[in-house]
Each structure stands twice: as C-alpha cells, then as structure tokens.
From TrEMBL:
InterPro entries: ASHA1/2-like_C (IPR013538), START-like_dom_sf (IPR023393). It comes from the Bacteria. Residues 35-130 form the Activator of Hsp90 ATPase homologue 1/2-like C-terminal domain. CDD domains: SRPBCC_CalC_Aha1-like_6. It comes from Promicromonospora umidemergens. This is SRPBCC family protein. Pfam families: AHSA1. Belongs to the AHA1 family.
Length: 216
C-alpha cells in the first residue's frame, strides 16, 4: 500500500483554463517524474502494443491527422505529434456523431528531468459545457488519469502493469482512488472552486471510483 500511495504523492495536480474550438474549457493538469529516459516514456505512450498494456488497447490510423479509438470507447484525432516531446489529441466520449456536448483535448509533454529521468506533464482540457463537471469536478477525469499514470509507472519500472479491471476494485486501488479524489478536491479549491461544490464533487467522485467508502 505504501508504494501505491507514494506514487500518488509523486504527482502534482492543478486546475487551470484553456480555450478549445468548442469554447472555454477547464484543465486538469498532472506533473510527475519517471525514472526512465524520455525516449522510453515516449515509446510507451505512442507504441500501440505498449500503450495497450498500461492504458487501453488502441486501434486506428495512428499518425498526425489520423484517428484513434480506445477499448473503453474514448476516441479522437491525433492533432500534433512531435517525437519525443509532445503529443496532443482530441478526446471524445460516446458513439461517433453522438459525443457528449463540447469536446476535450489531451496533451502530453515530456522533457529530461534536472536530475535524470523524464518529467511528464499531462493536460486534459475539457469544455465547460461537458456534463460531468457539475457533479464530479476535476476528479471526473483526474482520478482516472491518476490511476493510469500509476500503471505507467509500474510498466516503465518492470514491464508489468496492474490489471486494468482488477486493480481499481482492490483494497489498494480503492484507497488510491479515494485519496486521489481528495487531492483533486484540493486542486479544485486552489483553483477557485466553491467550497460547497468541491465537497460535493469529492463525495460524488469517491462514491463513483471507490463505492463503499473506506471498507477494506
């Protein structure tokens, strides 16, 4: 459990604002260091076989201007790809042509760490009109990204990754999600969120990702 929670503490979370083609957006921003070369991290986030082992299986025309679809239904276009430093994609939910209102984009930036390894920055910008924020706040996507970046850390360390289905429902996975929801609530507050909305959003996010509270 300690190793899992250390991974949670390794990331820095902030909220910000952005402008998308659909209009104003809020951002969920994660920054953390991996003890692996930039080229290895880049390969892990762009090679279809490796990506499927820590994120989700992916199909599509995987090149700039092409499209992708993940096994969970998320899909979009590859907007920018500058190896081995920057990847930006649109990130849509729902059947094609019937996505949620607005749109979102995910950008990953890699740079060499000052003491070695790789600094990773992930920015998920979601249109203000998307329907999850009023209920869940930034934890709607933030907890999911925390879980995936934890999986990436393990994958980069030893080539293995927690099971996509089993880990989130395990005691360690549930505790990780609960604390991640709280951490995103703190980022929401620091970004100017209304305290009552933040508290309700953390509660809703925790109930979604870790139903049953603190039961082990």
């Amino acid at each position: 459990m300690k190793d899992v929670l250390d991974e949670l503490a390794a990331a820095r979370r902030t909220m910000g604002t952005a402008t998308l083609p659909a209009g104003d957006a809020y951002t969920m921003e994660l920054r953390r260091r991996y003890d692996a070369p930039v080229e290895d991290v880049w390969h892990a986030i762009t090679d279809p076989e490796r990506l499927g082992r820590w994120l989700k299986p992916v199909t599509g025309n995987l090149r700039p201007g092409g499209s992708f679809e993940l096994d969970g239904g998320e899909h979009g276009e590859i907007l920018r790809c500058d190896p081995p430093r920057r990847l930006r994609v649109s990130w849509l939910f729902g059947p094609e042509g019937n996505e949620w209102p607005g749109t979102s984009e995910v950008e990953v930036l890699l740079s060499p760490g000052p003491t070695g390894g790789t600094e990773l920055e992930l920015v998920h910008a979601a249109a203000v009109g998307e329907p999850m924020f009023p209920t869940y706040g930034p934890g709607a996507g933030g907890v999911g990204w925390d879980l995936r970046l934890l999986t990436l850390a393990r994958f980069l360390a030893d080539g293995e990754a927690p099971d996509h289905e089993e880990f989130p429902t395990s005691p360690a996975g549930r505790e990780f999600a609960r604390r991640s929801a709280v951490a995103w609530g703190e980022a929401h507050l620091a970004g100017g969120g209304d305290p009552d909305h933040v508290a309700a959003a953390v509660e809703a996010t925790t109930a979604f990702y870790a139903p049953g509270g603190n039961e082990r």
